[in-house]
Amino acid sequence: MGKGLSLVYCDRTDIGRKRSNNQDSKAVLPPSGPQQYRTRGWLFLVADGMGAHAAGEMASAIAAERVPLVYEKTAQRSPPLALRHSMEQVNGEINAKGQGDPELKGMGTTCTVLALLPRGALVGHIGDSRAYRLRSGTIEQLTRDHSLVWELESAGAPDAAARHGKNIITRSMGPHPRVEVDIEGPFPVADGDVFLLCSDGLSGQVADAEIGLLAAELEPKEAAAALVGLTLIRGAPDNITVIVARAGVEEISKTSPGDEPWPMSDPPTAQPQAAARPWRMLALAAVSFLATLLISPWSDVPGREWVAATIGENLMHPISVIASVGCLVVCLLSLLIAWIGFLPAAPVSVRHLMPGKQIGKGPYRSYECKASQALLEGIVTSIESAADGLKEQDRERTLQLISSVRQHVAENQFPEAVMAVADAIAIYTKTLHYSRSGDTAPGRPAQP
After folding, report:
1. Buried b vs exposed e over 117-128: b needs ≥16 C-beta within 10 Å?
2. How far apart are the C-alpha atoms of 238 and 20, rounded to whole Å?
3. Stretch among 121-130, 329-338, 349-358 having the lowest mean pLDDT
4. Apex CA 421: angle with CA 419 and CA 423, to 5°?
C-alpha cells in the first residue's frame, strides 16, 4: 500500500479583474504520514461563495475550514460516508448562521472536495465548481455542474442553454437546512495522474482542453500560475481558484478482494423502548382471556341472574356470545403481536461499496488535451491581444515568446512551446500585479 507522500500540488486564488472582494476559498489537508494516508488520504477543497455583502465570502470560508475538520474527526467512518457527513453537517452550520443574521440570510457556497486515498480518488460535490482528472492526453470532468445551463444541455437543449446566458446554480451549500451531496468514485489513480479542482472563474474563461494542456504539460506550480494568468488575460470577470495535484508512484491505487467493503450508511441505533411492547401485549392477552371466561354464556359469575333479569334472557345470551368472542379475538391478536415482538429483530441492511466498485456516474465529460497547433494558437491569440496593453519592453518580450511558440509548434516541439506560453503569460501576470496598488486597485495578487 502506498504512503501517499509522492504527491506534488499547488493551490492559487485571485480576485480577478471585476470583483471588489474574493468570495472563493480553498483548503488542502495533507496526511501527516502513511497511516493517516491510509485512513483519510489527502483532502483538497474549492468553494465559491454566493451572497450579498460579505455573506458569500463567509460561507465559502466556513466550508473551507469546517469540512476538512469534520472529515478528519469522523475518519472512523468509511471515506465516502465521512465525506458525505462532513458536507451535510457544514451545510447545516452555514444555513443556521444565515438564518441567525438578516444580512447573511440565504448565503451559500459551492463545495467540491477531492479525497485522494489508497483505493482511489473520491469526490464530494455541491454546485458548479469542478474536479478533473488528466491522464494520457485526456481531461475528464469527474463532477457534473449543478446549474441550469448543465440541466438544459443534459436535457438535449444546448441552444436554450446558450441563449440563457448567465448561469444559475441549482444546488449549493447553505441556503437550505438539507442538501443532496454527490459522491463520485473512487476513480483509479495512476502514476502521473493530475487532479485539478477549480471554481467557475477559471472554467468559465478557459476551455477544458486548454486547462488539460497546461495542467498536464507543466509542473503543478507553473500550471496553477499559467491557468490563473490566462484567465486574467481573458478578462477574469469572476474570482479564480485552482488546485493542481500530480500523483506519484506512492499514490497508485490498489484494490484486492481482501479489502474491507466501505459501509455507505451508519448502522441503526438501538430502540430499547420497543422491548416493553411484547410484555404489554401479553398482559392484554391475559386480561382479554379472563374477560372471555367471565362473560361467556356458560359462566356462573355472581350477578349474572340479575343482569339477565334486567335486560331479558333472550338478549343476554347473544350479547354474551358476541362479547366473549370479541374478547377472545383480542386475546388471540395480543398473543400474536407478543409472539412477533419476542422474535429477534431482522438485521437492518447496510449498503456497502465493494472493492473495485464505484458510485456515481462520473466521469461526465472528456476532451482530448494533447498539445496541438490549434489548441496552442487559441491561447497565443489571447496573449497576443493582451500584449498591446503592456509597456514596450514587456510587449516586445511577449511577442518574442509568441514567435518562439509558433516556431516550436512548426517543429513539433510541443513541450518547449507550452513552456514558452507559460513564460509569456507570466510577463502579463507580473505586470498586472504591479499595477494593483491602493484602494482603487482592480484586485489583489494571486496567493500562493
Report:
1. bbbbbbbbbbbb
2. 10
3. 329-338
4. 70
Asked if residue 186 has a cis previous peptide bond (ω within 30° of 0), the answer is yes
Residues 6+ away with beta carbon under 8 Å from 388: 395
In sequence order, what are the residues at sequence separation of 6 or more whose Cβ sits closer than 8 angstroms to the Cβ of residue 82?
Answer: 40, 71, 74, 75
Q: Coil, helix or strand for 32?
A: coil
Place of cell 482511489: 120
C-alpha grid cell for residue 409? 509548434
pLDDT digit string, tens, across residues 270-323: 554 545 567 777 777 777 777 766 666 666 655 556 555 555 556 656 667 677
pLDDT greater than 80 at residue 19: yes
Helices then strands, counting H and E runs in the chain, come out as 14, 14
CA gyration radius for the chain? 33
Cα–Cα distances in angstroms (integers) from residue 174 to residues 21, 45, 74, 143, 270, in the given order: 20, 16, 21, 19, 31
In terms of DSSP H, where are the helices of 196-254? 200-203, 208-217, 220-233
Look-up: residue for cell 449543478? Answer: 146
Assign domain 8-255+365-435 to a CATH class: alpha beta
CB 148 within 8 A of CB 167: yes
User: Does the model's pTM come out above 0.85?
Assistant: no
All three cell numbers of 383 = 496573449
- Show the cell assigned to 341: 415482538
Q: Where are the domains of the chain?
A: 8-255+365-435, 274-342
Round to whole Å and give the CA distance between 41 and 68: 11
How far is 267 from 264, CA to CA, in rounded Å? Answer: 10
